[in-house]
Design brief:
Length: 196
């Protein structure tokens, strides 16, 4: 009986994945508002009514897909946090992971941000919550305790500086590859702008 439940759950997960993948394909091609549930389910080769067994709306698919990608990145961040590396190395690795996740998922993030920017009555809570800042804060405190990072600067300011690297890169109009942009900014923050 346990194996039957497991098989059923696997099938349900596979169906949900199919629906979400076909949805994204159509969203990228036609746009969220222009894509209908019927088109999604035709592309997924499933009955239209099946859609609502898995998602309450097209918008819920965006949130699900983004949350899934964030969860994968978050596990990597947790691994970095518990590693034996020093604080500077951990922070650098974190920015690399978050930056790479953003870069690889820009079309999805663009759809997500566009929908939530243009919608009034939606839950605007981001799917990733505050975990990135929590981990970053813990690493900063660890770095200060180990005398790796300056103690005369409040941890919240250091956290804001590192978070600012990501935000400024995400909004950058420079003709630089995304990760190169992050790496230059990280180098400036860690090593300074003055040539020694």
């Amino acid at each position: 009986m346990q194996q039957e439940i497991s098989r059923r759950e696997r099938k349900k997960l596979k169906t949900k994945k199919t629906i979400s993948e076909m949805s994204l394909k159509l969203f990228y091609k036609k746009g969220l508002n222009e894509t209908t549930v019927a088109e999604i389910m035709e592309e997924a080769d499933l009955g239209t009514g099946t859609f609502y067994n898995y998602f309450e709306s097209k918008e819920a698919i965006l949130k699900y897909c983004l949350a899934e990608r964030v969860a994968n990145a978050q596990q990597t961040l947790e691994d970095i946090y518990t590693s034996g590396a020093n604080a500077t190395k951990k922070i650098s690795q974190m920015l690399q992971v978050v930056g790479k996740t953003y870069e690889e998922n820009q079309p999805l993030i663009g759809l997500y941000m566009n929908f939530y920017r243009n919608s009034e009555n939606v839950d605007r809570k981001a799917p990733h919550g505050l975990r990135f800042k929590e981990i970053l804060s813990s690493i900063i405190l660890e770095g200060q305790a180990n005398n790796e990072l300056r103690r005369d600067i409040p941890p919240s300011i250091i956290n804001e500086m590192f978070s600012g690297i990501l935000q400024s890169t995400m909004g950058s109009n420079l003709e630089l590859p995304f990760m190169e942009n992050i790496n230059h900014k990280l180098s400036l923050l860690l090593e300074g702008v003055i040539k020694k």
